[in-house]
Amino acid sequence: MAAETARQQVQDQALVDHEHWLRQQRIEAYTAFLAGYDECTKISHRTRLKILDMSPGTGLPEDDFEEMTASANALRRLRQRVKLVGPAPIHSRAVELEEAVWSYHSSLEVLAEAFDGADETVQAITEEHEEMRGTATAHDAFVRAVGSLLEGVGALQSDVGSA
Q1: 143 and 84 in contact (C-beta within 8 Å)?
Q2: What is the span of the domain harbouring residue 142?
Q3: What pLDDT score was predicted for residue 9?
Q4: Where are the alpha helices (DSSP H) in the chain?
Q5: How far apart are CA 5 and CA 18, in angstroms?
Q6: Rounded to whole angstroms, how far apart are CA atoms 108 and 86?
Q7: pLDDT single digits (tens) 20-59
Q8: Overall domain count for the chain
Q9: Is 2 a residue whose pLDDT tops 90?
Q10: Cα separation values, 93 from 66, 88, 89, 98, 140, Å
Q11: What CATH number has the domain bearing residue 98?
Q12: Tens digits of residue pLDDT in 124-156
């Protein structure tokens, strides 16, 4: 009987240790992903300001677009780690955030083309603003889902489904 109790204690401790390790891995992956998002946001904001200051015919800020693409690709790599540590509802939110970043980058390119050609700038500005709000909404949903998971809220599925 004592051997069975000792074995159960070892198994219980191993489970606790694994849960702690997984929680730490998740925190690190989520933090890195959010840092990657922050980098995308910084580069996008700087590019947006350049675009809004453009004069027709000056050409597109290709170097800035390349930097935006590089940061979004880095975000994709960081999202892969989120996928690895899970859970699936958090990864889904990370995918949505990454997709929102790519959409926003596309809207900035359309905005630059509009400013460079001096046409349809109002529509391009409106679309760019909507995509910017989309990234903020996706960021908020990801952060709320992570918060629910890390706080141990049992309603993670319902929170993820309603956001």
Answers
A1: no
A2: 2-162
A3: 79
A4: 2-52, 62-85, 88-117, 121-151, 156-162
A5: 20
A6: 31
A7: 899 999 999 999 999 999 999 999 999 999 999 998 899 9
A8: 1
A9: no
A10: 25, 9, 6, 9, 10
A11: 1.20.120
A12: 999 999 999 999 999 999 999 999 998 874 434
What pLDDT band is residue 12 in, cutting at 50, 70 and 90? Answer: low
Residues 6+ away with beta carbon under 8 Å from 116: 54, 56, 57, 58, 59, 60
Supply 63's token pair. 């170097």
pTM, 2 dp:
0.85
CB distance 97 to 83 below 8 Å: no
Long-range pairs of 153-162 with CB within 8 A, sequence gap ≥ 24: 156/87, 156/89, 157/89, 160/89, 160/90, 160/92, 160/93
| Omega prior to 87 cis, within 30 of 0 | yes
| Dist. CA 132–CA 127, nearest whole Å | 9
Q: Is the dihedral of CA 113, 116, 117, 119 positive or negative?
A: positive
